């Protein structure tokens, strides 16, 4: 399992973020650049964030840094992001994510789902509300689970 986080736009307008064993500082820098490229498209999108691989939960300092980072993206998120489905299998991780929402209220709808299938269903519904479609290539994600 990768240690850090990756961002894929392979299935745009679906953006898939995969969190590895832990979130490290370098991840936030790389994600900032990835989101700059996404925002530059000036097109609506939906996010699936898969945190099932996380092993080390962010401490309070890291959670504050993550929340501050998200705040810097809020204006563009509000314009372009239709929402995020977060795949969370672990109760402690769901708790850590809930704690993050106390620090920062998301400018877009959020869902916490148990698996990729549920995430794709949620994402597909959000896209349909904006008259967009889930790309056919997303069936690969469904098959991968």
Your description of this structure?
The protein has 145 residues and is of the alpha/beta class. The protein is 48% helix and 21% strand. It has a five-stranded mixed sheet with strand order 1-2-3-4-5, with helices on both faces. α2 packs across α3. The longest helix has 21 residues, at 60-80. The protein starts with a strand and ends with a helix.
Ordered list of secondary-structure elements with their pairings:
Blueprint (H helix, E strand, L loop, with lengths): L4 E7 L2 E6 L5 H16 L4 E6 L9 H21 E7 L3 H13 L6 E4 L2 H14 L9 H6 L1
Parallel strand pairs: 2-3, 3-4, 4-5
Antiparallel strand pairs: 1-2
Helix pairs in contact: 1-2, 2-3
Distance N to C terminus: 16 Å
CATH topology grouping:
Transcription Regulator spoIIAA
Ranges where pLDDT stays below 50 over 5 or more residues in a row are: none
Largest sheet: 5 strands, mixed
Name the CATH superfamily classification: STAS domain
Helix content: 40-55%
| Number of extended strands | 5
From the 3D coordinates, which CATH architecture would you assign? 2-Layer Sandwich
**Secondary-structure element order, N to C:** EEHEHEHEHH
Percent range for β-strand residues: 15-25%
Question: Gist?
Answer:
The chain has helices at residues 25-40, 60-80, 91-103, 116-129, 139-144; strands at 5-11, 14-19, 45-50, 81-87, 110-113.
Note the main attributes of this structure.
145 residues, alpha/beta, Transcription Regulator spoIIAA, 5-stranded mixed β-sheet, 48% helix, globular
